[in-house]
Amino acid sequence: MWKAAAFVVSSLLLGGCVTGGSGAPKLTADQIDQKVESGDVDMQTLDSIVDTYEAGGDVYGLEGLEAGYRPALTSDEAGIWMRMEKLESSFKTSGGRVLRSDINTYVKTVVCKLAGPFCGDIRIYIIDEPVPNASMAPNGMMLVHTGILLQFRNESQLSAVLGHEIGHYLRRHSLQRIRQAVQIGDAATIFGMLTGGIGSMAAAIFTHGTLSAYSRDHEREADKFGALLLQRHGYSIRSASGVWDQFIRIENAKIDDDKEKYEGDEDVEVSKGGSFFSSHPGHKERRDTMRVLADRIQAGAGPYADGRKEYWAILKNYRLDLLEDEVNRNKPAQTLELLKILAEDPESLGELKYVEGEVYRRRRKDGDMEKALARYQEALKLDGYPAKLHRAMGTVLSRLDRPTEAKEAFQKYLEAAPDAPDNKLIRQMVNIGS
Question: What is the reported pTM?
Fold first, then answer.
């Protein structure tokens, strides 16, 4: 249930921005969307995106919202907050919530840095879910999926996403969406919300076709706020923009996963994106917009940090768990592409190579056992591989009918992990004496 609720409440993932200085007339929001949807994302389009949502002055000093704000009890907003608070109470005790103190403290610290005076108004719930997403409810509840922690490579990328969600909160976008639903007369979903069915209400808001352009405008504005918060706190906007190249690569790999899933079904149309991205600006637009913003507000200044060392200091004792959750998604092409992306950083490469072997071992296509074994052997030459690599190698060697080598691999596993819970089972399986 908690996973469904996380999706339903979600104000959706991230946002992106683009270039400037063309001197051409600025486009309206509708004109921008028309050009983007037609694939005509030219300099004029990108320049208009940047200028339309340019925010000056104090990013925290927005009219109508102050730290510690709560809506008047007689307002429609108070009713919305009440429903969100009821949902939030379920997250507090959810079995899907990540309770590790180091991860929670770290994410909270980054959020508080970005949120400034609004730090105390935001409650963060890290959800054990490998699909990358983050959400912001109008009452200050923020949901962060573990898939974000895995797929991002530094603190500036994480901060861009968290800053984007904070932008949604500061600009009160969720509230505006709900009021928009009221204005278009969606009586069924409005009734569902007022009677406690917040799930149906939120789902309708986030998928309703008539709100798509409205949603894209909000996403662009939230992206702008995210970039301004990066600037304010010394993060590199250009480094953060790289997250969209990463999403593009993984999204392209999704095509291969879809083709494999529906192999032989000629009637299935393989798409590049799901409904999640249908109401958002495209990855390329968001990347290019952030790069233009970097050129505008960080040119010739600095230094600006990417926070890679700080990010890895927290993630290093947790990444293998996240990687194994990613493998369990059974999206091999996407996971393999993600591993290539993560391998561009130097940390714990043996761990990544081991997980690559696990993808092949789990996939079991022709030749995959040999590929898995080759990856395990490569991992043994690198830093950071886990003891369980030897167990996986033993399993693959057994399937390849190489029992002597399999027994040696299992023996190495028992020596490397003498207290492993499967110690006795492995000994019995390969007849290794205690």
Answer: 0.81
